[in-house]
Amino acid sequence: MATKRKKSKAFNIVVVAQGGRLQYEAALFAASLRHFDAGFKGRLIVAEPQPGARWGQDPRITSPAVRKLLEEELGAEIVPFESRHFGEAYPYGNKIEALRELPEGEPFVFFDSDTLVTGALSALKIDFDRPAASMRREGTWPEVPLYGPGYGGIWKSLYDKFGLEFESTLDTSQPDEYWRRYLYFNAGWFFGPCGPSFGRRFEEYALAIRDDGPDELACQELDPWLDQVALPLVIHSLGGGRPGPELDGLDGDVTCHWRVMSLLYAREADAVVEALGAVTAPNKVKKVLKEYDPFKRLIFQNKGEKARALFDRAQMPRKEQAIRNRLKRENLWMR
Known about the structure:
Strand content: 5-15%
Distance between the termini: 48 Å
Number of helices: 12
Largest sheet: 6 strands, mixed
Shape: globular
Number of strands: 8
Strand order of the largest sheet: 3-2-1-4-7-6
Helix content: 25-40%
Radius of gyration: 20 Å
């Protein structure tokens, strides 16, 4: 008889929302969580950056309807945080700085706001004492210079900078100097046992890499990759690593990191499109999401179905840029 899967202990979920696109993405995330995981017992925290010296204009949620939907209808808690180090110059740093406002000592999962929940997150078996992050990634960093150093030299220099052991992070099933051999994540989701302690380590490493990186990084671009450069170091330093097969659903049938709504329609599975339709059908959700023109046109005016009809999911172009280009030619690229 198969062993019954145990549920993980209660945990909190955090996404970031601010004025513009992200507030509507966060509303869609929250609606999908409540639709597909009614048994979720933790707190849904929507982290909101506050005005300050690192923002040229007020970054807070601008739509009263979004705020009402999140707090009154979907049970989210909007929690403010200060942008001390990143802000407008590097908005990806929101996910780093927001963590300090999470409850001390409580396990958390962070999701990018452009994520759709399509299954029961609370049913996953998550070992929060062994942090991990998304493996739905491409070899975007580093760009190896013609005359070196290579992948190994670049990554090892970072582990050495923080006094971290390097060899155990290697996937030795992959060839030397191939990017998949080295610990590298998509920062679209990650988790740990304590948000503030994870955030402090994340902040420390990201700032040190940005402001005083090793010589091996002299030719490397860190914008927008800084969070994904620091993340594997943080996870390894806290005793984590690559996620096991029990978490495949976070990059599969439990969540979908869609990134751009046009891309969701173009390339995601039928089940994801059906889930999106179910989540956005209730009037209380629909009337709010329609405020955002790309959602209105793609989801509710059927432009998404036109985008979907352009592609055969069994024979998709190998490069995302080819998908983008075709969508743009048909005036169906919307974000």
